[in-house]
Amino acid sequence: MTTAEDLVNIDPNLLLVDDDAAFLGRLERAMARRGFAVRTAGSVAEGIAAVEADPPAYAVVDLRLEDGNGLDVVSRLHAKRPDARAVVLTGYGNIATAVTAVKLGATDYLSKPADADDVINALLASDEERPTPPENPMSADRVRWEHIQRVYELCDRNVSETARRLNMHRRTLQRILAKRAPR
């Protein structure tokens, strides 16, 4: 029986593609501690260049990047190395993009922020078995809070623009932003 460590030892090359430098650094350190030989890219162009230079066995790719769609990296990886396993991460999950990601060669689709153990379970799960659900999933309140924070950051911390995009009253948003994150 092949274990997760055996799979990583066969070909430990992992490509991480994300434009969130803090998240990318944390995930890079966590995956390196778990035995992967990690390369990182901060954009679609860098990700595609890394795939062209040396297609990795594993990839974790953010869906929305500043210069385009992370699915372009997944598609290129699948074309260069059909046996590669890719996981798509996103803060904007919906069924249509999940289906597209799987059609392009992704093995799983996870919501951000994803735990390193969840990412590894998704990367190393066999096609016959589904990865186990997370031990401590985020509460619905926490998921909502994380989404609001992400949109707030994408709007350059502009409360009015964030409220407009979330279809929320500005004062309600200000109250939410003033509170601590739920557990």
From TrEMBL:
Classification via Pfam families: Response_reg
InterPro entries listed in its UniProt record: ActR_PrrA_rreg (IPR047772), Bact_response_regulator (IPR050595), CheY-like_superfamily (IPR011006), Sig_transdc_resp-reg_receiver (IPR001789)
UniProt keyword annotations, A-Z: DNA-binding, Phosphoprotein, Transcription, Transcription regulation, Two-component regulatory system
Recorded superkingdom: Bacteria
Modified residues (4-aspartylphosphate): D62
Keyword Lyase: no
SMART domains cross-referenced by the UniProt entry: REC
GO biological process: phosphorelay signal transduction system
Annotated GO MF terms: DNA binding
UniProt keyword annotation of DNA-binding present: yes
Segments forming domain Response regulatory: 13-127
Job description of the protein: Member of the two-component regulatory system ActS/ActR acting in acid tolerance. These data implicate that a two-component sensor may be involved in pH sensing and/or response.
Name of the protein this chain belongs to: Acid tolerance regulatory protein ActR
Source organism of this protein record: Devosia pacifica
Gene symbol of the encoding locus: regA
